[in-house]
Amino acid sequence: MTNTVFFLFGATGDLARRKLYPAIYSLYRERKLGDRFAVIGLARRPKTSEQFREDVLESIKEFARYNVTKDEQWASFAEHFEYMPLDINNTEAFRELKTVADRLDDKFDVGGNRLFYLALAPELFGSVSHHLQAGGLLETPGWARLVIEKPFGYDLPSAEKLNAEIRQVFEEKDIYRIDHYLGKEMVQNINVVRFANAFFEPLWNNKYIANIQITLSETVGVEERGGYYDHSGALRDMGQNHMLQMLAMMAMEPPSRLSPEDIRDEKVKVFRSLRGFQSAAEARANTVRGQYAAGNLKGKPVVGYREEDSVNPESTTETYFAARVFVDNFRWAGVPFYIRTGKRLPVKTTEVVVEFKNVPNNVYLSKKHKLEPNLLVFRVNPMEGIYFKMNGKQPGSEGAIVPVAMDFCQSCQVGLNTPEAYERLLHDAARGDSTYFTRWDEVALAWKYVDKIAAAWGERTDNLNLYQAGTWGPDQAQQLLSEDGFKWWPVNGQDEGEVAWEFTKR
Ligand code: BG6
């Protein structure tokens, strides 16, 4: 049980509505929260606690995994929620907040634990931290932790500045930087599959693995976030964090112990081993950037990126990004990791494909047959599961060899009811487990890597490739792999309308 007062800054925002309230509700329903907790919603907008509880109810009805009706059970949950309008530049208001927090702490017998969740623009993290201190909110008999959303800065210098400001108030051990991909079941499962099964580890290296492909494709455009996104782009929005974090999970060495610091140390070693680019030309040769133009998605016409709300009509921001990444250590020398992400692609999916080296082509069966390589695929999102593709004899044939799949469909077993990333992460932050939060050194090294790419792109204006919405992005991303004799494996068993791997269909 985790006794906590949650301070939700940005309580009227989209993240709180879609993810945080539903997550708190699931934790409550699963008795992971107990009754000794309170939630204080904080935002500029005036509203009463009663209105706030109604909004929370609506968001839970719409987005939570558990059904809710306005009854006694709801009433006993909702009484833990209060709202306070707050001007975050006013220290006096933070003193008032302390009074409210102390009262709720007494009422629910919390014992002084405080979790400050900043679902705010990063420019505000530093000043809010200082105001929390000045308002006396950190003087508490329990612990005080800061949970912050990405983006953590815009580049390494801005991230360093931000970090320095926060560190004047909070120690690193009390800072929980969210990368919600680390809260996803199947991302966490990467470590379990790798380290809890004896047969993967001996093969998990450059002797047996030809390449690793990480795809994070989205069908959505920029929605209402044009203002933020146009400043950020796919490299900063997804590359610096989710993509590199998943890469680190795939590439890291087994940690010596299962402690958060040991696990994060191993990830840091991967980030340190990322092969930096010696020149801007080299960075450009190993990356692709694209932007969606108008097209069709699921049979409906959609506008191009430059026509989206709050986007500069002449914007050169990328909505697609692919890269060939090398991890220069003994395990991975010579194995390319291909990563790609984009908006307005044909399907919403996150998959990690491990392509194994093929059997030698001059022996036995491979002399007569064109054999497909073995693939191990982690399906992260929205379907969860793992499958392994291998070669087998086609039943009844004279010896035809066909690819067959061993398919563990997690979603088929637990339905789409696996815990949301935010449930896991909120619970972890409240009980002080920082394993699946990013430590400062990881963040800094990821920025260092990404900044080189951004700088190389910035030098030239001719490297933005337009792609039609509803397609798999610029052709250059295919070339990136074909140069090495590889291809992107179809995701979700589907590539541009063509159904591949019939055998995996249920
Ligand atoms: C966020 C990005 O971090 O992740 C968004 O800012 C993106 O642009 C989202 O849409 C994708 O997350 P998920 O969990 O829906 O795959």
UniProtKB/TrEMBL annotation:
Chain residues that bind substrate: 180, 184, 218, 237, 343, 348
Catalysed transformations (reactions): D-glucose 6-phosphate + NADP(+) = 6-phospho-D-glucono-1,5-lactone + NADPH + H(+)
Record keywords: Carbohydrate metabolism, Glucose metabolism, NADP, Oxidoreductase
Location of the Glucose-6-phosphate dehydrogenase NAD-binding domain: 8-189
Highest taxon of the lineage: Bacteria
InterPro entries linked to this entry: G6P_DH, G6P_DH_AS, G6P_DH_C, G6P_DH_NAD-bd, NAD(P)-bd_dom_sf
Active-site residues from the entry: 242
Sample GO molecular function, one term: glucose-6-phosphate dehydrogenase activity
Record EC number: 1.1.1.49
PROSITE patterns named in the record: G6P_DEHYDROGENASE
Residue ranges of domain Glucose-6-phosphate dehydrogenase C-terminal in the record: 192-489
Chain sites annotated for binding NADP(+): 10-17, 44, 87-88, 150
Pathway connected to this protein: Carbohydrate degradation; pentose phosphate pathway; D-ribulose 5-phosphate from D-glucose 6-phosphate (oxidative stage): step 1/3
Family note: Belongs to the glucose-6-phosphate dehydrogenase family.
Known role: Catalyzes the oxidation of glucose 6-phosphate to 6-phosphogluconolactone.
HAMAP family: G6PD
UniProt name for this protein: Glucose-6-phosphate 1-dehydrogenase
Name of the encoding gene: zwf_2
